[in-house]
Hints:
20 helices; about 75% helix
Amino acid sequence: MRKAxxxxxxxxxxxxxxxxxxxxxxxxxxxxxxxxVVSMLSFLDRGVMALFVQPIKRDFNLSDTEMSLLLGLAFxxxxxxxxxxxxxxxxxxxxxxxxAGCLALWSAATACCGIAQNYWTLxxxxxxxxxxxxxxxxxxxxxIADAVPRHRLPRAYAIQSxxxxxxxxxxxxIGGVLFGLLTHVEPFHVPLIGTIHNWQLVFMIVGIPGxxxxxxxxxxxxxxxxxxxxxxxxxxxxxxxxHIWGSRxxxxxxxxxxxxxxxxxxxxxxxxxxxxxRTYGWGPEIAGPLMGVVSLFATLAGLIGGARLAELMxxxxxxxxxxxxxxxxxxxxxxxxxxxxxPSPWLALxxxxxxxxxxxxxxxxxxxxxxxxxxxxxxxxxAVMYAAGITAIGGTLGPTLIGGLTDFVASSxxxxxxxxxxxxxxxxxxxxxLVWKSLAAYGRIYRQRIDDGSx
Length: 455
């Protein structure tokens, strides 16, 4: 680690003289805030499914493995199918229109989960939701990079990431509250549709706001001018792969490290509500709101602290953005291993809260690093490669690994807590090590792009 420090950590930056130090206009921050709301709705729609693992299993007669495919593969496979073609348009087309249109589509698909009558119709609705949402991450990151100057990117991405984390938290909070209010609603029949269960009403409700926000975005957000662009037609995929291969000492360990972390993140997010119910007897109406409130405050604290830390460290370290990511995951690791083994739900909830705060510490810096190191008209394609790995692969393998181990290795579904701890202990250190391996190469690329005026 000391060699990495010496290689990239001793450059000092003259903040006043550095290019791109101008403050973003209010419209730039408005764009960032609206994109944060869009990301919040994205994770609200995707996260509410995890809250209803037990009711869906009961009403559709599913196993943990079948449920894991619904939580993972049904949602993440479209990231590859749709994400790559869409990223080419994002790098050369109107990003605002594409994101707004996809927001309306995934909101409608989420509401359609509320009328699904069997496993496969629910699978298809989730597939459409995932395909539409695959556009949001790469499109939003690209727009934000052009809406604010480089030195404010960690702060801007913290706002966008707050939407991501806020949506994940609100999916538990709002979903749990709504389910609690609808607990006593008996299944009822709707002509031409079929039987509607109380948990399906929650999907209908949470899908509605996205249609309004889509209209607001289309009418009030301008398409930012691309900064530093030299290829209006964008880069073909062959050149994108060439760029990544040329920077493989940076991209390969970081991509693999984030893939491992994604498996753990998506796996835990998918199964934590079921963990609280099976281990401590907390149903969705109890676990959802508690997890949502705790997660919301923990993520906001972590994102604000992480953005500020990245900005402060960035004044003297070229690898600051990713170093904050490394430190956050390193500190969170032992907390995540211990949390499922706690003797009370309150201790588990408390350890998870602290782990979440440190776990998201590096999220703004990670987003900034990916955008900073790529040419303008290549940013969306590079981002979608990370999104495909993080969401499609990690989001599929994580829930499926935990569900499969619970079904075929553990003695019963009540041993889920031991599966969670074992998976975290086995994979967590690998992810932390791989992120550390990317620090030196990232610092060199960052300094080079500043010296040649690319950022």
